Amino acid sequence: MAADFDEPVFDEDFVRSAVFTEPSARERARPPSRRERRRSRRAAGGRFALRRRGREPSPRAAVLQVVGGVLVLLAISFALWWWNSAPRDERPARPVGPTITHSPAPAPTPTAPTPNAPGKQAPPTDIPEV
C-alpha cells in the first residue's frame, strides 16, 4: 500500500536502527590490510580472471569475436573440402579402361515347359523326404 504524502516513509525506529559508520581519517589514511585487498580482488574477479563477468564486451572486442568465428568456420570448411577432394599426386593415375574388349552374347532366357506337352513329363509336385 502506498504511503500518503503526510505520512513519513520511514518511521523513527527505522531511522534509529539505521546506523552508518564511516571510517575515521586515521583509518582512511592507512593502506588496506592483506585480507581487505584479497577480499576486494576476489570481488572484482581476481588477477587471473579470464573474462569480465556481468559486463558486455566492447564493440571492438565483439567485432573481433565475430571475425574470428567466421575465420574458424572458413578454415574448417576449407579443411573438409581439401580432405574430401581427389588425391593430389605428382603423376596422374593411369586411366582405367574396360578389361573385356568384346561383350559376349546374352544368355538365353529359360522358358517354362508347357504342362502335358507331348514327349515331356511334368515335374514332380511333392518333395521327397530324406
Short description:
The chain is built from 4 helices and no strands.
Topology:
Elements lengths: L11 H6 L7 H5 L4 H11 L14 H26 L46
Summarize the main sheet.
none
SSE order, one letter for each helix or strand:
HHHH
Write down the overall geometry. Answer: elongated
Note poorly predicted spans.
none
**Percent of sequence in beta strands:** under 5%
By secondary-structure content and strand pairing, the structural class works out as: mainly alpha
**Mean of residue pLDDT?**
78
Assembly state:
single chain
Treating each run of at least 4 consecutive H or I residues as one helix, how many helices?
Answer: 4
Distance between the first and last residues' Cα: 100 Å
Rg, Cα atoms, Å: 46 Å
Helix content: 25-40%
Descriptive report:
The structure is a single chain. With 130 residues, the chain is mainly α. The protein has helices spanning 12-17, 25-29, 34-44, 59-84.
Notable features of this structure?
0% strand, 130 residues, mainly alpha
